[in-house]
């Protein structure tokens, strides 16, 4: 179940979101092609957030630099997809510079949540997941019923299904909590950074939500985006009839 787009168009060009996408991709390309991974190891050791060092008050700059590092192509692609889907709308609501601050603070708080759970770890924490989780937490508060198209595949069943944002985000958040409790500190995924970032983003968005009327804002919009939703054309796969070309030919 993979979200691929939302039906929530932004009213202005999301310059900060585009800049973050470009920065993450370009930084990854600067070290991600080396076959033996020595460059990545050096980058992670220097700029990744190592919990035991930060807990002792050292290398605090890595709280920011670690947000622009990724451990592989899938790690990068997944994070950039979620940032692309949810980032533009949060930037549209908060404004360009406030969104940049929101993203940075959300990422820092997410990393601190991970460190609070495992403060003696020497494994570098890398990735934009915590900051993007904060964006998702804010999105849940402002647009709980925005439609999200999810790509569902199960064996031979492949569908694109629109579902409300609250369902996608609630399931995602629940999985972070479940996996965080189940895996503990042995996991290679920073589930508690994801959960912490999500909560931080939700809480940081409360002033904007309250300024728009709080519950009255939800009543006015019925929890949908406060503007017309985007409509996407449905693609159709042409069907052909069966044709028998004889005992040695194909049947369609």
TrEMBL record:
<dbReference type="GO" id="GO:0008233">
    <property type="term" value="F:peptidase activity"/>
</dbReference>
<feature type="transmembrane region" description="Helical">
    <location>
        <begin position="99"/>
        <end position="117"/>
    </location>
</feature>
<feature type="transmembrane region" description="Helical">
    <location>
        <begin position="67"/>
        <end position="87"/>
    </location>
</feature>
<keyword id="KW-0645">Protease</keyword>
<feature type="transmembrane region" description="Helical">
    <location>
        <begin position="12"/>
        <end position="33"/>
    </location>
</feature>
<keyword id="KW-0812">Transmembrane</keyword>
<dbReference type="InterPro" id="IPR035952">
    <property type="entry name" value="Rhomboid-like_sf"/>
</dbReference>
<feature type="transmembrane region" description="Helical">
    <location>
        <begin position="150"/>
        <end position="177"/>
    </location>
</feature>
<feature type="region of interest" description="Disordered">
    <location>
        <begin position="229"/>
        <end position="252"/>
    </location>
</feature>
<keyword id="KW-0472">Membrane</keyword>
<dbReference type="Pfam" id="PF01694">
    <property type="entry name" value="Rhomboid"/>
</dbReference>
<feature type="transmembrane region" description="Helical">
    <location>
        <begin position="123"/>
        <end position="143"/>
    </location>
</feature>
<keyword id="KW-0378">Hydrolase</keyword>
<keyword id="KW-1133">Transmembrane helix</keyword>
<feature type="transmembrane region" description="Helical">
    <location>
        <begin position="189"/>
        <end position="210"/>
    </location>
</feature>
<dbReference type="InterPro" id="IPR022764">
    <property type="entry name" value="Peptidase_S54_rhomboid_dom"/>
</dbReference>
<dbReference type="GO" id="GO:0006508">
    <property type="term" value="P:proteolysis"/>
</dbReference>
<dbReference type="InterPro" id="IPR050925">
    <property type="entry name" value="Rhomboid_protease_S54"/>
</dbReference>
<comment type="similarity">
    <text>Belongs to the peptidase S54 family.</text>
</comment>
<protein>
    <submittedName>
        <fullName>Membrane associated serine protease, rhomboid family</fullName>
    </submittedName>
</protein>
<feature type="domain" description="Peptidase S54 rhomboid">
    <location>
        <begin position="59"/>
        <end position="206"/>
    </location>
</feature>
